[in-house]
Amino acid sequence: MRVVGILLARNEEFFVERAVRNTLGFCDEFIAVENGSEDRTPDILKSLEDSTGGKVKFYQARHPGVSHDLIAGFAGTDTWIFGVDGDEIYDPAGLVRLRARLEAGEFAKDWCIFGNVLNVRRLDGPEGFAEGYLAPPCRSMSKLYNFNAIEAWHGPCLERLHGGRVIFREGYHEMLRRDLHKAVSWEKSDFRCLHVCFLSRSSMESASSRPRKNIMDVYNWSFRKTFGSALDYLLGRPSVDWKEQRYGRGPLVKVPAGPFFAAEFHTPGQSVKS
């Protein structure tokens, strides 16, 4: 059994090194794809490739769909594909425990696994606390897929693990989803993530920047969405903040941030207090 990480990043210089390094004890291989960054993200990812002896494999791509092409060949093999974003900081010790559970076959009959998430509104330093909104009631955005369950995942895919057509092997189907975040509390979870989606992630962002669209939204902006936005403008209705709608639900909670910053390194230039 293998675990392969796949990152697609654009302008994620503040947290991307932490996002990758926290997964390296879990993954056998990590594929890091950079798509159109204007900050230090490419330099950081190339440095990770050099410093990890090739465990991190760095690619630059003009279109985000390349990130899916790089993992499509794992279909039908005993491989778990772990989708990681530059604003997702996983608990490294928890991932090591999760790895043992994968190797023991606990999730062999599952197609995908979703974990616990805190959508971070405020981060008071590595030894302090993270404050934000838990999933549930927010949706979980963590992504761990069992590629042994499928024969193929054909394109066109706008990015890794999104879109296209999945062909399942006999006995598997898309509803075989394990929602760990609904079954296990944040405190007891092996698969948990600080999703720093409400914090600044790049020097390219200003304090007044509008919430950035994710890559799927940028490349999948439909006529319906365009028409709806134009109608809201003409009618004077406030536009819907998609980030608040998806990730700002429920009460604010505070959790210790220490387990997510246990490794002894620091990416300079990021103020973690928002």
Briefly characterize the structure:
The chain is α/β, with parallel strands linked by helices and 274 residues long.
- Counting structural domains, the number is 1
Largest sheet: 7 strands, mixed
User: How would you describe the shape?
Assistant: globular
For the largest sheet, list the strands in their spatial order: 3-2-1-4-9-6-12
Protein structure class: alpha/beta
CATH fold name, please? Spore Coat Polysaccharide Biosynthesis Protein SpsA, Chain A
Low-confidence stretches: 266-274
The first-level CATH class name: Alpha Beta
Commentary on this structure:
The protein has one domain: Spore Coat Polysaccharide Biosynthesis Protein SpsA, Chain A, CATH 3.90.550. Helix content is 23%, strand content 26%. It contains eight helices and 14 strands. The protein has helices at residues 16-21, 41-51, 66-72, 92-103, 180-183, 215-219, 223-235, 242-247, and strands at 2-9, 29-34, 56-60, 79-84, 88-90, 112-114, 116-123, 129-135, 143-146, 150-154, 165-168, 177-179, 192-195, 253-256. The protein is globular. The model is unreliable at 266-274 (pLDDT under 50).
